[in-house]
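**User:**
Everyone, produce one record:

**Assistant:**
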Amino acid sequence: MTNGYVTVLWEAEAKPGREADLEAFITAAVTPSRNDAGNIDYEAHRVEGRPGTFVIYERWESREHLDAHLGAPRMRELVPQMLELIDGSIEDGIRLLHPFRPAR
């Protein structure tokens, strides 16, 4: 993986009627995640034209940093709460991206 970093795109759709709850939940999770070791970027977004759909864009210095973030005690506590707010599973919305530069 070039540069060693990993990017995560996570998309989630709120259960009907839980849109504001999911937005508040994500908002509360952003700052602690930004403070985790190895975090480069952690940004939450609303998807235009799709109310209740959110995307989190994260970049981590390495897969090890991402794994440490995902394994943090607070994350284990947050997962059941998040599942109450989203349609589908957490894993369904995750895409891991690895940067590359095409040859010129």
Observations:
- The radius of gyration is 14 Å.
- The mean pLDDT is 93.
- DSSP finds three helices and five strands in the chain.
